[in-house]
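Progress report, Aim 2. The chain analyzed during this reporting quarter is listed below.
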Amino acid sequence: MFKKLSEIESGKTVMIKSFENEDLYLKLMEMGCVPGEIIKIENIAPFKDPISILVSGYHLSLRLKEAENIIVEEII
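Predicted structure tokens for the chain:
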């Protein structure tokens, strides 16, 4: 089942499926966030902003607005 990254709990591992915003896709692609990439949600700040993820071996902080545009699938 697909969800928005902003809806995923801390500690979960997910796979990026798609993006709702093409401009955001280009920005995140440069940072290693591409469809098919496995990411782990490390920490979520109060009010869910920002969200810290582990992607391609490094930590990346995303704003809530960015996380709402990333469609992911949970990996068991």
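The domain at 2-74 is CATH 2.30.30.90 (SH3 type barrels.). Helices lie at 22-29, 64-67. These observations will guide the mutagenesis work planned for the next reporting period.
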